[in-house]
Amino acid sequence: MQEAQEELALHFDQLLSELRQGHLNEFRELFLSLHIYDQAQFYQSLEEQERERLYTYLSPKELADMFDVIEEDNEHMKDYLDEMRPNYAADMLSEMYSDNAVDLLNTLDKSQVSKYLSLMDVEDASEIKELLHYEDDTAGSIMTTEFVSIVANQTVRSAMYVLKNEADVAETIYYVYVVDTDNRLVGVISLRDLIVNDDDTLIADVMSERVIAVHVGDDQEDVAKTIRDYDFLAVPVTDYDDHLLGIVTVDDIIDVIDDEAASDYSGLAGVNVEEVSENPLKAASKRLPWLITLLFLGMSTASLISHYEELVSEASILAVFISLITGTAGNAGTQSLAVAVRRIAMSDDKDTSFVSLIVSEVLTGLITGAVTGLTIFLIVGIWKHNFTLGFVIGMAMLCAITVANLAGSLIPMLMDKLGFDPAVASGPFITTLSDLTSVLIYFNIASLFLQYFM
Amino acid sequence: MQEAQEELALHFDQLLSELRQGHLNEFRELFLSLHIYDQAQFYQSLEEQERERLYTYLSPKELADMFDVIEEDNEHMKDYLDEMRPNYAADMLSEMYSDNAVDLLNTLDKSQVSKYLSLMDVEDASEIKELLHYEDDTAGSIMTTEFVSIVANQTVRSAMYVLKNEADVAETIYYVYVVDTDNRLVGVISLRDLIVNDDDTLIADVMSERVIAVHVGDDQEDVAKTIRDYDFLAVPVTDYDDHLLGIVTVDDIIDVIDDEAASDYSGLAGVNVEEVSENPLKAASKRLPWLITLLFLGMSTASLISHYEELVSEASILAVFISLITGTAGNAGTQSLAVAVRRIAMSDDKDTSFVSLIVSEVLTGLITGAVTGLTIFLIVGIWKHNFTLGFVIGMAMLCAITVANLAGSLIPMLMDKLGFDPAVASGPFITTLSDLTSVLIYFNIASLFLQYFM
Fold it and tell me: Where are the domains of chain B?
């Protein structure tokens, strides 16, 4: 890897000097010999003036191949398009795979989108317009329309002929989808199967009629699950009437899995880890809304304790264990939350597991609470020579942990039921909420037993 | 999807009745018409006696195809192998893709592994033995040896001939790797390129000589990054001398990405979310080690506060804000941790970003701390009509958040430097640690200003 990277760096240097010196042919040969991902890395390292020259050196199709691999969340995407001549940009967008073109257009203003669409040829523009209508995070929003489809009553030979012709524009040629005259999906055959069968075999005889397809409105996570479970390279997307609308390829699914993982992780931490900025001012501005919101939630805990200030001044020993109880309950609640969010994401049938998950989490809370409570009972009893105080702390721990587990599982479940992403019920939110309930439980139990441990 | 699932359920019912009634042919026809993932779902729904009959109905090769898609972390894997005749099991293991066979063998006892290896034919066994030697989580440990390789001085026609012959055993036929006489990797050509080129074209003329490969010792996360960045369906694995050893396919990479995401998520929550058990006793036993460890860490915070008990009894108002300060600092530390873990995972060059990340996190902490501190200064000042107290709380907040951000970024960075997975520095650990520093900061500042706010 090290060696390859150094070789690539040398290549980039040479490319840059060819570009600066205006050596069109040398530049093109060297540039096009690179893998498109490396082309994209080189392109993104250029200055605006250099990029402008590059546009005159490459055809819209050549640039489109490279743009297909640039992530659409690249913050400079808009600038790149702006610095191209509008016609060139529109041609490039037409040449891109439709799913990537749509992703890119989705980052632009509406007026820009219609400008580019009006400059494209009518067919490309209408294809893209249709894709732009699908809701975010559905199969429709990530599918591409560049797939290969044939009818069943032809031979392997003629299917291979179709493939050869479409190899240049199709996003994958490794599956060929079989449709009836009404464009309804009736079968699928992989290129592997085409290759091992005789040229004169009828497609109808060798295709698989048991096609696994996803619905255009399915959530992208479900599409990811299908591709992952079946080890597919692509999955067809259909409407309610089984018409073939497009395909989702495995590379897009990897992005989906990455995004979902990052968003779950962000949820648990209460910070968007994908928008990582080196600039502390920007980073702080992203994190402050959550922190300040939680600060106000934390204020209710503070005002609750304030309500018990007299109790604390009478028994200042109680203050010693506030952070231990809130902290431990918060830790237990976070565990519960993570398990619940994960199980909601993994579960196929969400309804049956609702009650069983809650019950299981509360029971888990009772057991962990009992063990933790007993431990702290012994520690406090021995340390402070006061087993009644130990009992108060232990009981509070048991109840606080059980309630934290209930909140940690119930809140994401409810959010899921209400149609929100359960991962939004972040870890910090659960711990801050559990601070409140823990303190309430703690001081109530302490008040009950005050006369016995003081 | 709904409809398809119902159809599949009907299918399973019919399959089960054919199996129970001993209709060999009907069962085989129906079973083999299913996609292997669905075959595996059916197989896993059977009772032991039914599975034992199924082994007599299917060839080791047919069973192997199905076992290739069962995740190796399935807890019943060992039982499945045990209930087969050892020879049948060994034959099945030989027929599986080598990477999957190795994953499966890795879950067994050493004595069992050598039993099966001794029953396999020598060539298969030696291939698997070699793969078993690679360290966990490296490219070597997830690669398969069933790839298609050719030499450069042949035509597209003869390459296609090789492909047809190997299509049945190769894990992917969509890339053909080109090697020299010494088995050094010199090029690659995709099936797409083979198809669009004339049969008489020389491979040497159309192959890509710029092969992106990974080293056998590379971390599986780096392999995942390469496949994801380049949108590959597979990547070749080589040794230091560029000898082609195997390939890693995209379906294995999806599993890697899933596992890494789950382990990061688990780390942040302080619980292994992958070992989800419905049994509360088991779940509690998994979570308690962390909770009890953190409880003891929390005890140091308690004993620290205990040290300041006199201060608290003098100024019980101080107790009101303990959980607010520890909670908010904990939230900020968790944000910092998540960003650091993510950035370590994403960064290509880990050394340069070390200092800049720490500096950036501390500065972010100072800014968020200043804003949060100012907010709480105003709230407390107005609420308690005591701006000196507000100043103490605000200052403590500022310092506690800054220290929490430092800990949240420094600890995962240090773990990464020391060769540990930075995600092990879990969220609960950071928050519990930050409780300690926050309390220390809070009471020290409070002691300094005690005479002014009381």
Answer: 7-132, 147-269, 280-452
Per CATH, domain B147-269 is 3.40.720.10: no
Task: Name, in order, each residue with C-beta under 8 angstroms of B88's C-beta and a sequence gap of 6 or more.
Answer: B55, B60
Q: Do A326 and B330 touch (CB under 8 A)?
A: no
| B214-215 and B234-238 strand pairing | parallel
The residues with which B238 forms a beta bridge, in sequence order, are B215, B244
Contacting A residues, span 304-363, partner chain B, CB-CB under 8 Å: 305-306, 309-310, 312-313, 316-324, 326-328, 330-332, 334-335, 337-339, 342-343, 346, 356, 360-361, 363
Contact A141, A220 (CB under 8 A): yes
3-state secondary structure of A177: strand
Read off the pLDDT of residues B212-267 as tens digits, 9 standing for 90 and up. 999 999 999 899 999 998 989 999 999 989 999 999 999 999 989 988 888 888 88
Pairing of strands A234-238, B234-238: unpaired
- From B146's Cα to the closest Cα of chain A, the distance in A is 15
What 8-state DSSP symbol labels residue B252? H
CA B102, B107, B109: angle at the middle one, nearest 5?
105
Nearest to A37 among B192, B230, B233 (CB): B230
> Which H or E run includes A185?
strand A185-190
Would the CB atoms of B305 and A319 count as touching at under 8 Å?
A: yes
* Host H or E run for residue A110: helix A110-119
Q: Which of residues 94-153 of B touch A (CB under 8 A)?
A: none
Chain B CB within 8 Å of residue A33 CB: yes
Contact B218, B231 (CB under 8 A): no
Candidates B280, B279, B262; CA nearest to B271 is: B262
How far does the CA of residue A100 sit from the closest CA of chain B (Å)? 13
Residue B271: which of B293, B240, B251 has the closest Cα? B293
What letter would DSSP give residue A200? T
Helix axes A60-67, A36-44, angle to 10 degrees: 90
What is the DSSP secondary structure assignment for residue B275, as one 8-state letter?
Answer: S
CATH (residue range B7-132)? 1.25.60.10
Q: What is the CATH number of domain A280-452?
A: 1.10.357.20
A347 within 8 A of A357, measured Cβ to Cβ: no
Angle at A200 between CA A198 and CA A205, to 5 degrees: 85
Q: What is the tens place of the pLDDT at every residue in B401-441?
A: 999 999 999 988 888 888 777 776 678 888 889 999 999 99
